[in-house]
Structures are given as structure tokens and as C-alpha cells.
Amino acid sequence: MSAESVFSLRNRWFITAVGITAGLFLLTAVVGLIVLPYAQRDVTFTSIWDAICSAAGVPQVRSSAAPVQPDFKVSTVVVTASMLGQPSQESIGRGATLAQQCAICHGPVGVSRADSPNLAGQYASAIYKQLKDFTSGARVNAIMTPFAVSLSEQDMVDLSAYYAYLPRLPAYHPEQGKPAPRIVVNGAPMRNIAACGSCHGALDNKAGSPWLEGQSAAYIRTQLQAFASGARRNDISQQMRNIARQMTPEEIDEVAQYYASQPPQSRRASSE
Amino acid sequence: MLNSRRLILAHFWLAFGVFGLALLLGAWQMFVRSPLQAWISNPEWYYRSLTAHGTVMGYVFPTLVAMGFGYAISEAALKQALIGRRWAWAGFWLIAVGAVTAMVPVSMGLASVLYTFYPPLIGNPFYYIGVVLVVVGSWIWVALMSINLHVWKRDHPGEPVPLAMFANVAGSYLWAWTAVGAALELLFQIIPVALGLRSTIDAGLARVFFSWTLHAIVYFWLIPTYIAYYTIFPRAIGGKLYSDPMGRLAFILFLVVSMPIGIHHAFADPQVGAGFKFIHSAFTALVALPTLLTIFTICATAEVAARMRGGRGPFGWIKALPWSNPIMLATALSFVMLGFGGAGGLINMSYQLNTTIHNTQWITGHFHLIFGGAIVIMYFAITYDLWPHLTGRALTSVRLMRAQLWLWFIGMIVTTFPWHWVGILGMPRRMAFFDYSSPALAADAMSVTMSAFGGFILVASSILFFAVLIQNRRAPQAEPGEYRFATAIHPPITLPAVLNGHALWIALMVGLTVTNYGFPIMQLLVTPETSVPAVYVGAEK
Amino acid sequence: MTSSPHIHDDGAAVAARAERRWATLSIVIIVVIAGVAAFAGIHQATMPQVRVETADPTTLHIGGEFVETNLGSAAEPDGTVTVRAIGQRYSFTPQCILVPTDTPITLRATSSDVVHGLLIQGTNVNTMLVPGYVSVLTARFEKPGEHLMPCQEFCSIGHEGMWARVKVIDKAAFMNMTSNRRRLDCVE
């Protein structure tokens, strides 16, 4: 039996097995790549080659009608998890100098006394995105816009790096120990509200989203209301408007109070 | 002739140890997402548990069972001491270390990406490295099975390879090749990104690579079960296997056609062309063939054995079967679950029907019924059959074993039937909680509650299983005799080379992989700008 | 199994014959199943999407087909309706899709970050959204009503909150609405 060669044209098993396998493949390939594409009612192919390529999965250029363009400024920031990378000491230093003009509202160490956002230890990507949006006009604020338009690209990177570098200090109004409201830990699935913590820290972070612990309640409330009404539209593809417009005024209040009362989470050992 | 008893025992104990832990996680998951429990305060815990459950049940547990059983087959069927026992221990420890390496980041919430990986979600690199170690450990087993068979063939020229070993080696080759898809995905796509060497990944390509592994892995899990059908069941009921070549043909068909069909998992994916989806769908239909052949052969085996025991009538012979025998019971229950599961599988394999249930709870119900039910119940049977030969002590409580098997069967049915049903209602998979107070989901509440109770029954069954094994430690020493596999009614005296070796079938398996996967993979590789930014899970808080 | 090796007696011949019959029957079963799938593909036009298309997920919001003001339902000159949507962690935009009854609908959707899935309960609309690629499928809604549209693929923590809705309204009412808005949705 060892003398019997398996891979031989004289072995009937070999011929049969290979023949059946190849035949099945060819049959299914002809049906899948030629017969079925042509059987589609709403599709026309320029040639048989076009049909085969489509069915085989060769990417094709779409011929789409002109899209409806926004009549307002949308955010043009490309947000990725690896944006901004590791800041240099020099960048942080430049940021520190630039940050002096921000201290009036955002506090000398990035913790505000004036219901402006605390920036100390905030994610660089979150700060950078807002600065870019103020510059482009995707987000509008009477105080911030004039500041932001004067900043260069490098200025925005440096400022983000500096504030991200600062230690996370507790804000002025913590009344800790409140249980987290349901909307924060569970959201409201049927209203398409995911848990706040799944993007804004505590559970997980989504790139470009800020962490919120210790922010002023008034600020959080105003922003949620602005998202809900559509007054603020710089959230990419409505990701925040989708949530805010589903929230009740009571829930908005609850969330704002809760986050304002929380101390910042200590930073993890290695930062990105 | 079982020389490597400690080795085999180690595999089975580790397998069932991790199985017990993962089963508890599974039952907990059923419970927390059911209406019996208020929403958990941290949904991340659910996904963490799900990742651990899937990784252990999918990669660690069945691999260890296949390996331990494989070593036992090699020694008992070939009547030849295992060659390379040190390597076998190395493989075992690689799996143990790999499992721990993977589970540490998972338990810390650093890799809640589920066992199917789902890039561009990227977790802690140690999770993926641990999984790779598990696979590498199992590849040592593949090599050892091949070497042991090769040495035996050299010493026994022209003799038919015992069916158990033929099937065992077919299963090992199947696993070696099917694991390549996920290995390519892990080594060339995911791990470089997890280590921070790259920041983008082609999610579409990764899904195609994973489909290469994801379907055939089911047949790797299945093969020990089929080996038990063919080579333990006939002997256990006091009969003989109806046909030896038919068994070989079934395993050969698994080897050839279970691999190039994985894109049926990607029917709803936008990155694969419709033509290749059809080709894979057609080949998926073909993979039903070895199962249909097996059902015939095993039923015929049972009928012949029953008639020898005095069974009469077209169906009356069924009563004459030795129902008090746990192997008989397990096989029958396994067949029932295989029947229901297979019928469900027919729905998944066609694009048209699949759209109604794709990625719903139906899918989870389906693979729990097939794998957790039909396959795992035979893992219990294999263990019961093999155990006295491993420990040198008899298994004393047949009633306990029967109770355990019945509980497992009932638990599986109670768990998976409602699970299928809510899938048809459109309930999506893998959610930490559901709002059953919504009128649209209220209809699911009852079914999900039933499934949760099914999960508790399964836990109860596993407790009985461990009780049987622990009781065995206290049983008196007993010489179990030689460990034998069933012989065929007409044992083959000589076989054509193709039925006595794997070369042709491996060539066809690789060939079909090239035809069915080659173009889709090459196409995605050359398509520019489809790599997307990685999304890191659990990295920053 | 025509060459069943070394058959020595009548019993073996009987066994081989029974086996051959069963094997033939099995093959017939499988051919019928595959045939039914092909038939359904041809006659009910339920084949997977015809063409593979790509889209850069990081710039969807800046311009092109998936810019936010172009999302939603558009009435096409040929009488069909095109629905464009994106999936992102953790919502679909638009989060309520408005479609007319008795109209061929083409759904074009993609993901801006990870893999999502789009499933409209009570229908056969069920597809994956893989970042980098555009999912296209056709549908037709017979009756007015509301459907839930959950994300059916794990997309990280927050997946359980990703539920959108689909509202099917009378065709005439839908077409009326298109006269003053070019892209429709039912987001309130």
C-alpha cells in the first residue's frame, strides 16, 4: 500500500476527489460571480467583467448625487485615539506661557472660579478639538472665539499639551458621596442614551470627549441645553445632540449636579 | 495501554477547571441581563465577563479536551507509548500560562473586546499574546499527533490506521490550518497595534481572517464528539461500528470542507463581494454531508446492537438499547441537540434566511445548543468512559452520572430554546442590560427569564459532574483493563492509501482555502486607505 | 463509496448498499438546500450588496455623502428613497429614520469608528457597519408603524444604549414632506 501513490493521475481516488472539488468550486463560482449578479433586478452592469468584479468584491467608485451641504460650520477636526501623541517638554513650556491669557477665566492652575471649564489634567484631544472648533466657527462663544482665532495651529497643540500635563485638582464645590444617578451609569437605552461614563470617563473614554468630574454644574447644564436645542452643533455627526435632546430637564440637572460634586479621578500611571 | 496518565489527567482537570469557572460567569451573565436583576451599575463588568467566558469556552476548554483525548487515543489506539511526552507537557504549560496571561488583563477590565476581538477595538496586548500562547501550545499537540502516527505507520506498513487515530489526526490538521486565520489577524494586524507600533488597522480584512478560524473551529470542537460517536459509543452499548470507511469519509469531509466556508459569518459584511458569499454559502451546505453520514452510521450501529440484544420491530428495537448506560444516554441526548442545532444551522447558512436572525440572540442560542449541548455532553461522556483508565478507580455512581447528563440536557434546552425565540423577535446580542419596561421588549422578558433558569440548571449539572469525579478519588482501586475503541462489523483489512492517510485531503483543504479565501484577502490587502484608527479599550480613565 | 474496500460477504454488501443509498439521499438533500438558496437569491432579489464601496471613517463629518446635513431620507427622481445613516459610539445618526410605505428603499450606511450592526426589528433589514466600507441594502416597508433599530454588534461599553428607531409613514404624507425638506428624519 505504501507503494500506492496518492498524487497520481492513475489513482482513481485522486482523480475523483480533485475533480469533484474543482467542479464544485467552478460551478459555485459561475453561479455566484456571473449568474446571480445578472439575476439582480435593479442593477445594470457595463460588461460581464464589471459583473464579475462586482461580485468578487473589487471596490467601486460610487456615483452619488451632490450631497446637501450644511448651511452652518461643522467641526472639521479628525479625532483619533492616537492624535497629538506624546507632547515635548518644549511644547508644554510654550503652552504654559500662552496659558497666562486664559487664567482669568480658567484659573491660574486650570481650575476655574467662574463657571468656566476646569482644564487642569483634561485630555489634550478634548481641549484641542474645542480650540479648533472655536477657530473654525463650528463652536461660537462671545469670549472664547476672539481668543481662539488669534491662535496658530502650534499654539493650540501647545495649550492642549500644557493643560493635559497639569495635575487634576479638586474643584471648589465638591459634595461627594452622592450616589451616581441612573442616567450616568446606565443611561436610558430605549431613548438612545448610553451611560455618560462610557465616553466621559469612569467607565471608558471616547477619544475627543472630556472627562467631567468637578466641572461647574452651570456649565454642564448650559452645554447640554445647547446641544439639545441645536444651538451648539460642533459635536461630530450629532453624537452629543442625539443624547442631549433625549434627556429630560430633570435628568440634565441631575447629571450636572452629580458631575460637579465629584472629585477628579486620579490620573493613571502612564499617560499618552 | 495508557502510559501518559498524568499528562492526560492534567489536560482534563485543567479543561474542566476553567470550564467550571467560565460556566459560572455565563450563568451570571444570563442572570444580570434578565428581568430578575436590576441593571448592573457598571455595564463594563458584563463585557469583561463575556470576554472571559468566550475566551475560556472557545479557546482553552475544548482545545485541552481535544489534546488530552488525543494523547489518550494515540496511546490506546496505536498501542504505542506517546512519543514526545516532554513536548506534550511543554504544550500543556504553554496553554496554562497563555490562559493566565490572557485572563489577567481581561479581569482588570483592560481587554473587554470579546473573544472575537472586533478590531478596531484594541485591548491590552497581553490578552492577545495569551491567546497566541494557547494556540502555539496546541500546535505542539498537532505536531506530536502527526509524529506519533508517522512512527506507527513506519512500524506497521500497510496496516489500516485505527479509525480513532485517523480521526484524531484529521482533527489536529484541521485545527492547525484553521487557527492560521486568527493567527494572521493577531500577529500581523492586532498585536502590532496593541503594542503601539501602528495606530490603524483594516477592520474588514481582520473580519475575513477571523471568519477563516471562526467557523472551522466549531468542527475542531466537534471532532472529539464524533470520535466518541464512532469509536466509544458502539463498544459502550455492546455492539460494533456499522462501517469503518464511512467514518473515515466523514472525517475526511470535515477536513476538506469545514474550512473554506467561513465567510458565511460575514454575509452581512460590506467588504466581501456577493459572489464569494454565495460560494461559501454553497460549501456550507456541503458540510452537512459528514453529519448526515454520521447520523446514518451511528443509528445503524445502534440498531444492529439493539437487534443483537433481542430488539424487534421497525422502532421497537430502540427499547432494547442499554439506556442505563451513561454513554448511551449521552449519545442519544447529544443527537437530539445536534438535530435541533443542525436545523438552526441550516437557517444561518443561507444569506436569505440569515438576514432575519443575523447577530441576534438566535446566534448565541444556536452555538450554545451545538457546542455547549451536543458537543460538551459528549465531552462528559468521554470523561466518564476514560476516567477509570486514568485514575485506576471505578466510577461508582451510574445514577449520578445519568442525573448529571439529563440535567445538562434539560438545562441546555431550557436555556437555548427561549434564546432562539427572542432572537427571532430581533433581540440583539451582547448587551449588558435591556429595558424590559419598554412595550417593544416586554415580550422578551419571559423568555430571557427562562434562559436564566436554564443557566442555573447547567450550573447544577456541572456540580454533579464534579461530584462524580471527586467520588472517584475515594473509590477503591480497580484494574479497568485495556482501554479499547469500538471495532467495525467488517474491520478493514487493507485500505486504499487515500483512506489511510491525510495528504490528499490536506492538499484539497489548502487548495479550497486558496480558491475561496485567496481573492477576497488579496483584494482587501491591495485596497488602499481602508485602515481605520484603532480605538483603545480600557486604556484611559 | 463505490470502491468500499474488500467486501467479503453478503452482509457487507447489504451494508454497503444501504450506505450508498443514504449517501445519495444526503447529497440530494444538500443540493436541494443549496438550490433553494440560489433560487431565493434570484427570485426574491435578496442577494447581498452588489458592489463593495469604501469610505474614510475619520472624515465622514467633514464632507461628502455622509456629512450630517445629508443624512436621513432623500426622495430620488426615479421614485425610490435613499436613506443615509452612520453608526458611531453610541448612536445612529439620524437616531430616528423616517421612510414611506410601498416604496423601494436603498439604505446606505457606514461607521465612523468601530464595527456596528444595524438591525430593524420585525424586518429583514440587518447588516454590519464596518469602518472603511459602505453597507448598502434595499428594503420595502408594507405597513406604517414603528420599529426599533438596535445596534446588533458589540461596539464597546455603551453598546447597550445604542437603540435607534424607524418610523414608517404613509407614502403620500412622506412625499408631501419632501417638498419643503430635502432630507427627512423623525428626530424630535
TrEMBL record, chain A:
SUPFAM superfamilies for the chain: Cytochrome c (SSF46626)
InterPro entries assigned: Cyt_c-like_dom, Cyt_c-like_dom_sf, Cytochrome_c_Oxidase_Subunit
Ranges that cross the membrane: 12-38
Cytochrome c domain: residues covered: 90-167, 182-263
Swiss-Prot/TrEMBL keywords: Electron transport, Heme, Iron, Membrane, Metal-binding, Transmembrane, Transmembrane helix, Transport
PANTHER family for the chain: CBB3-TYPE CYTOCHROME C OXIDASE SUBUNIT FIXP (PTHR33751), CYTOCHROME C4 (PTHR33751:SF9)
Name assigned to this protein: Cytochrome c4
Automatic annotation (TrEMBL), chain B:
Domain of life: Bacteria
Any one Pfam family match given in the protein's UniProt record, by short name: COX1
Keyword Transmembrane part of the UniProt annotation: yes
Keyword tags: Electron transport, Membrane, Respiratory chain, Transmembrane, Transmembrane helix, Transport
SUPFAM superfamilies per the UniProt record, alphabetical: Cytochrome c oxidase subunit I-like (SSF81442)
Transmembrane domains' residue ranges: 12-31, 51-74, 86-106, 126-152, 173-197, 209-229, 249-267, 279-306, 327-347, 367-384, 405-425, 445-470
The protein, known as: B(O/a)3-type cytochrome-c oxidase subunit 1
Coiled-coil ranges (or none): none
InterPro entries: Ba3-like_Oxidase_I, Cyt_c_oxase-like_su1_dom, Cyt_c_oxase-like_su1_sf, Cyt_C_Oxase_1
PANTHER family xrefs: CYTOCHROME C OXIDASE SUBUNIT 1, CYTOCHROME C OXIDASE SUBUNIT I
Ranges of residues in domain Cytochrome oxidase subunit I profile: 1-493
UniProtKB/TrEMBL annotation, chain C:
Residue ranges of every copy of the Cytochrome oxidase subunit II copper A binding domain listed in the record: 78-180
One matching Pfam family: COX2
Protein location: Cell envelope
Keywords, comma-separated and alphabetical: Copper, Membrane, Metal-binding, Transmembrane, Transmembrane helix
InterPro entries reported for this sequence: CcO_II-like_C, Copper_CuA, Cupredoxin, NosZ/Cyto_c_oxidase_sub2
Family annotation (Gene3D superfamilies): Cupredoxins - blue copper proteins
PANTHER family: CYTOCHROME C OXIDASE SUBUNIT II, NITROUS-OXIDE REDUCTASE
Record protein name field: Cytochrome C oxidase subunit II
